[in-house]
Amino acid sequence: MTINITADSCQGVPFPSCFQVPVETPTPLSLDLVGAVTETNSVPQAIDLEMQLSAVDGSLLDFLHSARLAIDLPPGVSVTSDGGFSAVGATPGVPEPSSALLLAAGLGLLAALLRHVKVAAVSAIALVAGIAAAQAAEQIEPNAGNWKTWVIASGRDFRAPPPPNDAGAEIAELKTLAQQRDAAKDLIAYWDVGPPSYRWQEIALDEMMRNALPWQIAVRDFALVHAAVYDAMVAAWDSKYAYNRRRPSEADATLVPVLANPRSPSYPAEHAVAAGAAAAVLSYLFPDRAAYFAQKAEEAGRSRVLAGVQYPSDVSAGLELGHKVAAVVIERGKADGTGAKWTGSIPAGPGKWNGTNPVLPQMAMWRTWVLESPSEFRSPPPPAYDSPEKAAELAEIKNFPRTPKTNSAAYFWEYAVGGLRGHQYWAEQINRLALEYRLADDPPRAARAYALHDIAVIDAGIGCWDGKYTYWAIRPFQLDPEVKSLFPTPNHPSYPAAHGCFSMAQAGILGYLFPRDAAALAALAEEAAESRVWAGIHYRSDIVAGAALGRAVATKVIDRAKKDGSPPP
Question: Which one of 159, 259, 320, 419 is separated from 24 by 20 to 30 angstroms, measured CA to CA?
């Protein structure tokens, strides 16, 4: 038989409102819980539970039992009851067992006690309630709905409408759809790799490479995509813990999902939220591909329904939420200055860059995300073209002892992962790190990482371009025709060096987010910057200024991240 345990009121406390315990008992029993919550500064401190245990036919038991379940999280959960039972949760610093094992142990104890001791049964029930609270403590980022957002005012402002009260029809639909799993196994597996942001990073990158976007445009587009996904994920987590909807198989044990249930409430679906946000922003950026992005978004949501880990209504609500957040982000994109045309002129004079058709001078006027203005970290003026410092820098370039190793590195950072492909390399780095750090289990934290990375990069790029088109510094080959570079010099002023700005900002923010890899990432950025001297296209002062600017931007983004309400890395 099955004992149905129902909490009539949990008043927002994140533990299951109803769950079923299959046990063997002498007679059918029913239990009702009524809970009241004590809070301090909106943090649950205690739950007073009043429980009534009786036989279904009214013939065996009929009594009330009051217990007090104290919540102190972290580090653990303590449970006491006036039936003589007490238990204390995990000690600080000691890893807790998995919630599944705790729950299994509690349910086993409940079953054993119900078979033998009537009064102890209520104490055992209090233990199960405590285990449920411990399980809630292990849920994924229960406070992420309060994290600071980038574009929307708050996650709560975009809270989804309540989920359906009766899930019976949807569970029946899921059981029917389960018959299609064999045919959909590749779809389910594809969307289950990494966090929801992971696949949309790949989809966005593929589109950027398909359109041969320069890195300056690509990183701006990445920032819009991942700011939308992150803000939507914050809003989703606000809704999840506002409604605390159980996963389908938690509501009906006869429905067996093909994937493990994520440790967060079911509604709205996180994959659908990311899909709705990313597909909408990408459709704005690449309107001719809107149908393709909509198809991918539908696939992402459908994969979770077929896997049995979300209700169809979770998915529809998630897509709608993602679309609503994306609409706000798209409005920001329309007003960020990227559509403006440059109407200036190239200044003439000694020591000035003297090419034609400079690359994106208007980028210096784009709207920043974290910097107060493009000029906030403007580099100091470069050494004068006719100064002893500049002469020494020219001598370093002309006398640099090139080797196969330095040439290979210079070519790598220009042709393999530089120029039009710089964003590709670092986009793949964060995808790798997201997998290695197992962010698949933490969609809000993953979305936050992608957004922080892309925002640091675009702000570093805007700040870098501010310096380039403030000083219009002459390139080495323009100042001295005897300078022979390994490859053609990029068509924009020399100071500060873009690889220094770009690479140092990325290494700085990624090193903060993924600290085990900080040293390796810093080494990559250092080589990327130095390679421009090895190639003969930058002066030493260009590299130094670019690296300093990139680090300054990364530091400011990190400072914001430390105050956004999320736990430290």
Answer: 259
